[in-house]
Amino acid sequence: MKQIVSKEAFNEGLAKLLTEYDIYGPVRHPYRGTHSDTDKIQYQQVHSFDEMEWDEKSQFSPKSAVLPINQLLFYFVEDQWLEASETMRKILVFLRPCDLHGMKRMDEIYLNNGAPDYFYERRRKMIKFVVVGCKETYRNCFCVSMGSNVPEDYDAALNIRDDHFELDIIDEDLAVFAGREADFDIDYVTENTFSIEVPEEVDSQYLAEHDMWREFDSRCIACGRCNYVCPTCTCFDMQDIYYKENEDAGERRRVWGACMVDRYTDIAGGITFRSKYGSRMRFKAMHKIYDFRKRFGYNMCVGCGRCDDACPQYISFSETIEKVGAVMKQKLNEEDPA
Amino acid sequence: MTNEYIPQAAVIREIIPHTEREWTFRVETDGTNTKPGQFYEISIPRYGESPISVSGYADDFVDFTIRNVGRVTNYLFDLKPGDKLALRGPYGNGFDIEEFKNKEVIIVAGGTALSPVRGVIEYAYYHPEEFKGFSVICGFKSPAEVLFRDDIERWKERLNVIQCVDGAPEGYTGPVGMVTAFIPDIEIKDAENLQAIVAGPPVMIKFSTLELQKRGIIDHNLWVSYERRMHCGLGKCGHCKMDDTYICLDGPVFRFTDARKLFD
Fold first, then answer.
1. Which residue in A102, A297, B67, B145 is deepest, having the highest Cβ count within 10 Å?
2. CB-based contact B176:B162 (threshold 8 Å)
3. CA of B150, closest CA in chain A: separation in Å?
4. Is B78 found in the same domain as B36?
5. Which residues of B touch A (CB under 8 A)?
6. Could you tell me if residue B150 is inside a domain?
7. Which tens digits make up the pLDDT trace of A131-170?
8. How many domains does chain A have?
9. Residues B104, B65: one domain?
10. 3-class secondary-structure state, position B24
């Protein structure tokens, strides 16, 4: 159902939904950014549209709404384990098309790679998505090159206009907004400020031995920010804690993991794989544009550009993809000069 | 929806020390669906979880041979028979004995990596007539670090077993040298159909597979067991991924035709 909704009516609708839903959207926190005099924009619970920030890209993706940064799995008391409860309320997440595409990748890992993940599935079932159309591209975005600019499979979609909204409701449960019917298309960008060519043919074994990654051995500082801001990085670490007052009781949690960070590959006996930061960069890059595709049929990276925004060393992931493309082209030329 | 993350408490029936820091924990749990080469996530609440290979199994117990090198294992070494630990599994594909029956078999294993192949060797010990030949080369750092001593002596009765050490003090009379040094001497009747298994640290896998290839063993019949950080065992946490392969789901046992394409 497509309708034009006034700002007041939209917030009234949200208020109705709030009785059943927890609503998540990007929120600006002035002066809370990493650097002085910068703001932080991250996903959290909101209660009205005005709390949400859409003028600028959120530095963190909405994945925290689906996969909490720190998720309690169970409590242990002596040798008994008590499963942690999950919210009984429904969840509504407002997000951009690239991030919605990111959710498809999260689902792929957590629901389709092996048996469905119990804790992910339990929360995921409660979640619906409202995609917010993009009229203009943000800085560092390359969604068009990754094919994740067009919104797909949403429960509702929204165009933000100066004094009203265009709202397309797919899921009946969300049809609580007063407005008049109208016809429109949900916005999406057809070009970003730059485009890249993702190489079709990637020889990951050849690339693993290529010296193109050595530049990152010293440039990268293995802080993992690119992982934490990525809407498609799904890795986690297990973490146990116990209560100070009673060491026989505690919790097991999972927390976001990062392949760029030390200890990611460590195994017993002091063996580490990929100790060089450039090799970690390669591992991450290959996952995003090659081996996920080999396993599931489409690229993992959605081109949101947050890794480029976040890198303290100004390493550009999109440029790295281009470099991979150039190396592969050169290899093909050498093999077949014609 | 089953919750795979919640472990089961299991009683330790017996602790069998091999060396000062390598012990086998015999744990009371259903082993009827367990295969050699699979692994469990053993956990000590408060300290975390570790993926540990199955080193033996029966209907009512599973053995884990553990080296005391980390937080979880450190705690395990304080436990006594009758104490409980927590486990979930088995995970991974493991070795399928059927692939090896009626064939010549060579197993090359280094140190604690004897665990994942021990079940295969035990089967051959009890059913030697089901194989056309069965050789084991197992290497350890030093005579003091030899694991499964009694088993190895027992296996020697029916199988061709070479137990070597990388280095030994003056006066040691057993074979000394890397496992790779003993591969050229194994008698082979039909290299093309011979099945070989290599389990051990990455460097050992690299050079042992090379030696076995030199003996004419084809990659399709060469099996390796990989050890990576199988943190969740369920294909979710990402830590054990190599290229597009999840060691916990697709492995840890691979034919070398697949394994040679894997890299970190």
1. A102
2. no
3. 25
4. yes
5. 1-7, 9, 43, 45-50, 67, 69-70, 73, 84, 86, 201-202, 227-229, 231-232, 234-239, 241, 243-244, 246, 248-249, 261, 263-264
6. yes
7. 999 999 999 999 999 999 999 999 999 999 999 999 999 9
8. 1
9. no
10. strand
